[in-house]
Amino acid sequence: MSDQDSFRLDASFPSLVLTLSSSAWVSLGKIADPISGELKQDLRAAKFTIDTLIMLREKTRGNLDADEKKLIDALVNDLQANYAETIFIEKESPKADDEKAPEAAPRETEKPATESAKKAKKPGQSAAKAKNNGVKPDQ
Fold first, then answer.
1. What pLDDT does residue 25 have?
2. Cα–Cα distance between 56 and 52 in angstroms, integer?
3. For the whole model, what pTM was predicted?
4. How far apart are the C-alpha atoms of 56 and 88, rounded to whole Å?
5. pLDDT < 70 regions, the chain
6. What is the DSSP string of the chain?
7. Cα–Cα distance, 28 to 34 (Å, whole number)
8. What is the rounded CA–CA span in Å between residue 38 and residue 27?
């Protein structure tokens, strides 16, 4: 018996949904890519694969045995929960906010720093020193 004979895969509903779910887990970045060994995240691909499993579940409704129904329901539920968690974490992540958020604009009450503003009297500075900076002291 050759290695190919002992490693024969049966084309079955469970093997199809397990293959799709494995692809979704890789796209979610929860397991390493089996080819590269790297953790990568592709949320669009994950969503597509989860949606494909949902469509497959709907199209096969009434034609699955109890074990197949239980399997696809569990896979879809786990993947949807992990997808939602991943999206939530991405939105709440300070790193993601830093990358996406533009630099904060000055508030309306703030004025841009000018040379004269830099020379203005500082707290605890004497009026004479402020005068030397070229700015009239506060009265």
1. 98
2. 6
3. 0.62
4. 26
5. 1-7, 95-139
6. --HHHHTPPP--HHHHHHHHHHHHHHHHTSS--TTT------HHHHHHHHHHHHHHHHHTTTSS-HHHHHHHHHHHHHHHHHHHHHHHHHHH-HHHHHHHSPPPPPPTT-----HHHHTSPPTT--HHHHHHTTSPPP-
7. 14
8. 11
